[in-house]
Hints:
Largest sheet: 9 strands, antiparallel
Order of helices and strands: EEEEEEEEEEHEHEEEHEEEEEHHH
Oligomer: single chain
Low-confidence stretches: 1-32, 51-57, 136-140, 164-172
Number of helices: 6
Number of domains: 2
CATH class of the largest domain: Alpha Beta
Shape: globular
Amino acid sequence: MKMRHAFGLMTAAVVGVSGIGTVGVAQAAESEKSEPSSATLQQISLQANEGVSDLTGQRSTDAFRLFGLNWDDPTEQLSGDVEARTRDAQTGTWSDWVRLEANGPGGEENGKGSRGASNSVWVEPSDGVEVRVAGAQKSAGAALPKGARLTLVHPGTNGGKGTDDKVGTGRAGQPPIVSRAGWGADETMVPPGTEPGDPAHDPEYNPDVKAMFVHHTTESDTKYKCKESPDRARAVQKLHVLGNGWKDVGYNFMVDKCGTIFEGRKGGVDKPVLGAHTYGFNRESSGVALLGGYMDAKAARQALSAVGSLSAWKLGLHGVDPDGTVDLKAGATQKNHYGKQFEAGKTYPFERISAHRDGTDTLCSGDELYAQLPEIRRFAKEANGR
């Protein structure tokens, strides 16, 4: 599951300390509300100050389409319920409150400058935001890790060509994959505090790929037009690099609801590129994310078929049958969503096609998509002619 090389906006925020404390984003400077042509990122600092009123005003921002929380230490977790809502730029209507929760430990296992991250949320074009801490915390600040900030991303209007709301039929073998150039990836983007050309930004490679981990990218959101898919891919890149501090998109591949497959992390779609998608198990796997959120909505058949075909091809490059199980070595000591304990250095059985929550404590890939994993495995078998 389970969200321009300079930051646009850095403002202070406050949290009330009793009942429901609203993290009121401090007033932003007035700016044009039109959607930007180039991708943009804003970050708003969230700080807990005792003795401040629970209620604060709803605040204006520059235009954005994707948001999520970030904080300094990727091993630190949110300890309370943090919620946000946004203002529609066209209608001025405020959305319902959406919960933001830690998306498991940091994705880059050895990434310098990696940060903690929540789930991300895709919204209609928006120009206002409000954040609150809800629940019974005696101190609202207890819910906020050090360096907490809200990251707002707009992918820009100049980007990839987009896709039609239907899927073509691919040949056997490698399925059709939209290149990074096709969706408008910014190949000059590097994490904050680093320089272009640093060898640390170069792709790293695993010895092979033994398993596929399935993800979703946002909270429940499946009503988008597939022509928006390149926009979503660019927003993911911006959030992962400038928000999470990763070297590139965490996922190796992304798939939209119409079944179009997009190249994710650079390095070659046919190569065992090390991703940042399933903490502790990135070293022996590849990650594919469905664009959208699947906690409450089922993924479309064409999307499941695309993930199955992609998995069969990707695993087949390494002589691996997508059916059955495989033992993977844990790279971190942690529990998964179901409470299973992993110890670093030990091996554990996984389905060849598993979900993010199988390896890490996260809600990703969503309840409904998780229930559809058997269908993805069936499509993978069919792609292998079985």
